Recover the amino acids of this structure.
């Protein structure tokens, strides 16, 4: 069995119908994992399942619709994975929202609560629901998508960044609590990735100038740039790594 081999393992991913989530699911499936991908829209999920299965030449992907902002839907998702596929070995909490652009001091209560529920609390719920399977095996890996926005203030994306910093705090606490049981928790912090979610940032007139000025690798990130880190954190290659925030940003964050 190779260091990155995920054969026989079950992975559950949220926010995985497109973009980074889809890329990470594909990477896990290519290494042999059975991947259950979830998002809100079933039609998108079904198309993504076909794409993943084509990429790995086997039927390794399963779609389940779920809105991560609702605890009962998350519980139904976890229950369905166990019933249809088996105990969960890997969790990728990639779903997130950013309903508000503007100063944190002016954010409406509803937008603040939606941001924190989706980006932080939903991942706590997911961890609480899935961790018993991993404790029973004495082994498991959960990773949650944070952001380089966690590491610096912003007058436009400040509350989003706050939620992603809180998510790193959640990861560290869970890593401390469940490390003795053999369960690992890590955060992935992408830089500016060319996805629909971040379109307002990379399509702006300043984006090309920013790439030339601030990103040593001189390009925006692509969703596929996240495949390797997901496989690494899911596999035995990272078996002595927990409680970390790994930055995937082309070098843009090394000065902050």
């Amino acid at each position: 069995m190779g260091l990155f081999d995920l054969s026989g393992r079950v992975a559950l991913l949220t926010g995985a119908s497109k973009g980074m989530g889809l890329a990470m699911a594909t990477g896990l499936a290519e290494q042999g994992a059975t991947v259950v991908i979830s998002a809100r829209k079933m039609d998108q999920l079904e198309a993504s399942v076909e794409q993943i299965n084509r990429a790995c030449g086997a039927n390794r992907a399963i779609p389940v619709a779920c809105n991560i902002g609702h605890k009962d839907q998350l519980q139904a998702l976890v229950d369905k994975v166990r019933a249809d596929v088996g105990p969960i070995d890997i969790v990728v909490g990639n779903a997130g929202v950013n309903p508000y652009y503007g100063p944190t001091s002016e954010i409406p209560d509803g937008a603040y609560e939606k941001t924190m529920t989706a980006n932080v609390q939903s991942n706590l719920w997911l961890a609480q629901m899935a961790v018993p399977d991993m404790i029973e095996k004495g082994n498991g890996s959960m990773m949650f998508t944070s952001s380089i926005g966690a590491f610096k203030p912003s007058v436009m994306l400040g509350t989003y960044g706050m939620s992603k910093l809180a998510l790193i705090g959640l990861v560290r606490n869970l890593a401390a609590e469940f490390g003795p049981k053999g369960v690992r928790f890590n955060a992935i912090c992408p830089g500016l990735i060319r996805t629909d979610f971040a379109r307002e940032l990379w399509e702006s007139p300043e984006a090309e100038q920013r790439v030339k000025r601030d990103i040593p690798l001189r390009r925006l990130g692509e969703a596929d740039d996240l495949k390797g880190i997901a496989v690494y954190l899911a596999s035995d290659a990272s078996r002595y790594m927990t409680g970390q925030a790994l930055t995937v940003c082309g070098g843009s964050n090394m000065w902050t």
